[in-house]
Design a protein that fits this description.
Bound molecules: zinc ion
Shape: globular
CATH topology of the largest domain: Quinone Oxidoreductase, Chain A, domain 1
CATH class of the largest domain: Alpha Beta
Radius of gyration: 21 Å
Strand content: 25-35%
CATH superfamily of the largest domain: Medium-chain alcohol dehydrogenases, catalytic domain
Length: 382
Amino acid sequence: MTACEFGAIVDRKRLPTPFQSAKKTPHPLTIRLKEIEMKALLLLEYKQLAVTDFDEPDVAARDVLIQIRACGICGSDIHGYDGSSGRRIPPLVMGHEAAGVVSSVGSEVGGFGVGDHVTFDSTVSCGNCYFCRRGDINLCDNRRVLGVSCGEYRRHGAFAEYVAVPQHICYRLPASLPFEHAAMIEAVSVAVHAANRTPVTLGDTAVVVGSGMIGLLVIQAIRLAGCSTVIAVDLDESRLEKAKLLGADVALKADAVDVPDEVHKLTGGRGADVVLEVVGATQTIKAAVACARKGGMLTLIGNLAPTVEMPLQAIVTRELSVFGSCASSGEYPACIDLLEKGAIRVEPLITAKASLEEGPDWFSRLYQGEAGAMKVILDPTL
Ligand SMILES: [Zn+2]
Ligand SMILES: [Zn+2]
């Protein structure tokens, strides 16, 4: 499970049953713009994907219909693909990391027009609950992730020619930003949110435990937040090379060196001011705690395991501040700006761009753990 999926809380009373037909009953306010079908990559059964004809989404009064030009395959899609996460119950069109072009707008939409390049938050927040009204949209009581069906709701996603989303989760993109970069904004926003959650003082030293997709973005975000030294940790040599390419000062191979020892050597024996953990397992969390200086900050982003063993006494007696960080909350405009200016780079994280038809093959390759593969982006117009 990745951070973008964590903490999905829904109102059970209002939601359809898991096996409700994919065809929805239109809301009274819904305007059916086109009675046509589109191509979509449908999860028919666990581990069985096919490109099929699918009803084009209904566009409600405040919805924007987007022609998808890029949609990334997320780790949470791979975890859902075989049924193990329980969050991709078939039949389902997955896909929540996307960008495209506005193809039509509902009658009450303002600020977006046909032809605009847009991306959207992977999470549909309600806008009305206590948390939404505080601006904590990632903590929304009624949040629904696009491309997820978990028994409590089913919301088809963006591995399709078109998707309709409410305008309040849409963001306009500069025309110069490639769609495949924009499809990475959801992942970038997870990293930027984690950096925003972490109290940093200019000149701090940061350790990032885990240098996968999100870790490589956290490395860049925490440097932008003011850390002058960034130490990357991973088991995989090729990821550590990418970490250095993307600005890590030091890369530590966790099975080759004693990571906390090395961090102490690099920080005058004190330990790092801030540590960000992007794995979510007992061993890596123990290492992260051991890397932090007394009074240091520890931000937890990874949540691979639902429960881990925490070194309680080390946290208490060394007065660490521990922060959880989930998805993002209002960081999309900043992420768009950072990507456009090249302050955060995503190009080295993109393994391939492929058509919807090539999707089933890529899902199975990623599921089998293809070496060196990071983000694969599907473009339904290819
Ligand atoms: Zn995701
Ligand atoms: Zn809400």
